[in-house]
Specification:
Strand order of the largest sheet: 12-13-11-14-15-10-16
GO molecular function: ATP binding; DNA binding; DNA helicase activity; hydrolase activity
Protein name: Probable DNA 3'-5' helicase RecG
Mean pLDDT: 87
Number of strands: 22
Radius of gyration: 31 Å
CATH topology of the largest domain: Rossmann fold
Organism: Sandarakinorhabdus cyanobacteriorum
Low-confidence stretches: 615-627
Number of domains: 4
Pfam families: DEAD, Helicase_C, RecG_dom3_C, RecG_wedge
CATH architecture of the largest domain: 3-Layer(aba) Sandwich
Strand content: 15-25%
CATH class of the largest domain: Alpha Beta
CATH superfamily of the largest domain: P-loop containing nucleotide triphosphate hydrolases
Helix content: 40-55%
Bound molecules: adenosine-5'-diphosphate, magnesium ion
Keywords: ATP-binding, DNA damage, DNA repair, DNA-binding, Helicase, Hydrolase, Nucleotide-binding
Distance between the termini: 17 Å
């Protein structure tokens, strides 16, 4: 239960003066629903208004406060705005322009011949000076009002002034709260209390730093509570026997890389303990994570438990299943596939086999964690492409099974360390920082649209020579139909050039079985070219495909380009990636494509991407629907992450139940930053 002291902040905005249903809808567009959302709605800048006696050219573009005398009201046609011609004390003319106001309004507010104090931004319109929608005050209304004013992100129907009022009301409702930050940290940073810092942040004074820190602290606390909870339930040691692992190792056509061996060791070390494993394996695309996952699964199976592997998409689940079946052939284990698509008798039989323990390893999409799916004895859960899943989903995973299972997460999106801690701080980290030997770097080139013909000729030669290739079409903003149309048109065009039978198409709107059939044809070499939208972004593995063409490459994020490029370069042949760019490129787009040309290093690309786009995009939090950070841009405040982590740890070491005075304060913090799932972790077993 949320502590009562926070109720005023968590009330709906409609509780505020003058906020009716229309305004509620307007504010909702800014994701403002509660009073606290308003209190956290920070300005983006301050405007400084100059109070002047006379207007001149040098003031154009600036906010001003100036005494003006209206001389004429001019209401053109029904569609044109109201114009009030006014003059300053030096005889300079300026038009005051209002859309949607009547002449009678002007007669009351701006009577002719009466000097008024006018506030607004001075613009030039053709030969004339003008001010659009200025505020009007009487000359004797006291000294000129605020000359400094915060500028808020706005939406139609809510003026900056109105937003300022709403925010002020919201700030008035912030109660005095006990301090949750470690006193020594507070003193060292010289930070004010929470409420004071929040008010200061609205004046664009120092204050935002503390809020960012608060948010990171809430985040770290929540992650640690998740970890504390997950590990408080005693799990089961799965030490394995090494029997299946040895059999697999002797069958592999190549030795494991040093990094694979090391990470497998870290994982088996965890699994040999009764405390449930919570480990994240990072490895660049093509570093061989699937095999590492399989060794973990074998240890579970050797110990008599079942393993489950969760993939973010159906295509990936199928591919993992096929790969694992191939690798695990004649090890005497049963590997099955379950996706949302399986229905009826087949599904029932599969569920029965799973419940009876006749299936050792289940691969699938999130369907494998639905209520109805009962495991005989689930010991290990592997989550592939972890960044696609949110914390909430990670939590439901850990709840399956009689005893909490070991959890192994894998991600191919290299994540800079500070980010890994903010996002996956509850997990231990392993890194596969080495690729299988003999891999050639992927040669990357950027081509302008004028070279399309040349590119297609090259593609035709590649295909003639028995090569396979991908052609990726971009997502068109805002419309899946449009993506499909673009990809379909491109596929038709390429079919006409390369031959109908050689070109396949997959996109997100296709039915599952259709998609599978195309993927299977491509994997088996029956298709030479696969035209696709980003559905093939993660994980797809066809080593014979050595050419990747990405159309309108400037529309993709860097990490995404890197992922896509990682679909080639998986065999020992030389691979190429051609980035087809549009006509007009921004400066950043240009430098991003240049970086892609220069490096194959996923970590370097991730760091740059982080700088360019911010954390939410990189982590794909959009996809997982997880709340991003309001204040703590993990790039800008990297140095606070470690501090917040230490602070959180100290607090939990002293008061793991958050029962003491500071613990209680920290609970408030968790609610304020919507990390109260962490509080729930404190209750129950
Ligand atoms: P990731 O999931 O990390 O992107 P995969 O697990 O799909 O990479 O592996 C990429 C390719 O490398 C696969 O074709 C796999 O069979 C191969 N591979 C994995 N480990 C090794 C190794 N030690 N030596 C050679 N090839 C390997
Ligand atoms: Mg993979």
């Amino acid at each position: 239960m949320r502590p009562d002291i926070l109720n005023p902040l968590f009330a709906e905005v409609s509780a505020l003066k003058g906020v009716g249903s229309a305004q509620v809808r307007q504010l909702a567009r800014l994701k403002i629903a509660r009073v606290i959302d308003l209190a956290f709605h920070l300005p983006t800048m301050m405007i400084e208004r100059q109070s002047v006696e006379r207007l001149d050219e040098t003031l154009v573009g600036q906010p001003v406060i100036v005494p003006l005398t209206p001389a004429r009201h001019d209401r053109g046609g029904p569609r044109s705005p109201l114009r009030v011609a006014a003059v300053d004390r030096g005889g300079q003319w300026v038009d005051l322009v209002y859309f949607g106001q009547t002449a009678s309004w002007a007669q009351t507010r701006l009577p002719i011949g009466v000097e008024k104090r006018i506030t607004g931004k001075l613009d030039r319109y053709g030969q004339k000076l003008q001010i659009a929608h200025p505020e009007v005050a009487a000359m004797d209304a006291g000294p000129p009002g605020q000359t400094r004013e915060p500028v808020y992100p706005l939406t139609e129907g809510v003026t900056n002034r109105r937003m300022g009022q709403l925010v002020a009301e919201a700030l008035g409702r912030v109660p005095a709260l006990p301090e949750w930050i470690e006193p020594s940290v507070l003193a060292r940073q010289g930070w004010a209390g929470f409420a004071e810092s929040l008010a200061a942040a609205h004046r664009m004074e120092r204050g935002r730093d503390r809020l960012a820190y608060d948010e990171l602290l809430a985040n770290q606390l929540a992650l640690m509570l998740v970890r504390q909870r997950a590990r408080s339930r005693k799990g089961r040691a799965l030490p394995g026997t090494g029997q299946l692992a040895d059999a697999l190792r002797s069958r592999l056509p190549w030795p494991l890389t040093g990094a694979q061996t090391r990470v497998i060791g870290e994982i088996l070390g965890d699994m040999a303990q009764a405390e449930p494993m919570l480990r994240l394996v990072q490895g660049d695309v093509g570093s061989g994570k699937t095999l590492v996952a399989l060794f973990a699964c074998l240890a579970a199976i050797e110990s008599g438990a079942q393993a489950a592997l969760l993939a973010p998409t159906e295509i990936l689940a199928r591919q993992h299943h096929a790969t694992l079946i191939k690798l695990g052939a004649d090890l005497g284990i049963r590997i099955a596939l379950l996706t949302g698509r399986d229905k009826g008798k087949v599904r029932e039989q599969l569920l029965a086999d799973l419940a009876a323990g006749r299936i050792n390893l289940l691969v699938g999409t999130h369907a494998i964690f639905q209520e109805a799916v009962d495991y005989h004895d689930l010991g290990l859960v592997v989550v592939d492409e972890q960044h696609r899943f949110g914390v909430a989903q990670r939590l439901t995973l850990a709840a399956k099974g009689r005893t909490p299972p070991h959890v192994l997460a894998m991600t191919a999106t290299p994540i800079p360390r500070s980010l890994a801690l903010t996002r996956f701080g509850e997990m231990d980290q392993s890194m596969i920082d080495e690729r299988p030997p003999g891999r050639q770097p992927i040669e990357t080139r950027v081509m302008g649209p004028e070279r399309l013909e040349e590119l297609i000729a090259g593609l035709a030669r590649h295909v003639e020579g028995g090569g396979q290739a991908y052609w990726v079409c971009p997502l068109v903003e805002g419309s899946e139909d449009a993506d499909e149309a673009a990809a379909t048109t491109r596929a038709a065009f390429l079919k006409a050039r390369l031959g109908e039978a050689r070109v396949g198409l997959v996109h997100g709107q296709m039915k599952g079985p259709e998609k599978d059939a195309v993927m299977a044809d491509f994997a088996a070499g029956r298709l030479a070219l696969l035209v696709a939208t980003t559905v093939i972004e993660v994980g797809v593995d066809v080593p014979n495909a050595t050419l990747m063409i990405i159309e309108a490459a400037e529309r993709f994020g860097l990490a995404q380009l890197h992922q896509l490029r990682g679909r080639v370069g998986r065999g020992s042949g030389l691979s190429r990636c051609l980035l087809l760019r549009g006509d007009e490129l921004s400066e950043t787009a240009r430098s991003r494509l240049k970086l892609m040309r220069e490096t194959n290093d996923g970590f370097r690309i991730a760091e740059e991407d982080l700088k360019l786009r911010g954390a939410g995009e990189i982590l794909g939090t959009r996809q997982s629907g997880e709340e991003a950070f309001r204040f703590a841009d993990p790039v800008r405040v990297q140095h606070y992450v470690g501090m917040a982590r230490a602070d959180a740890r100290l607090l939990l070491d002293r008061d793991g139940g958050l029962d003491g005075a500071r613990g209680q304060a920290a609970r408030l913090l968790l609610y304020l930053f919507d990390r109260d799932a962490g509080v729930a972790m404190l209750r129950g077993g």
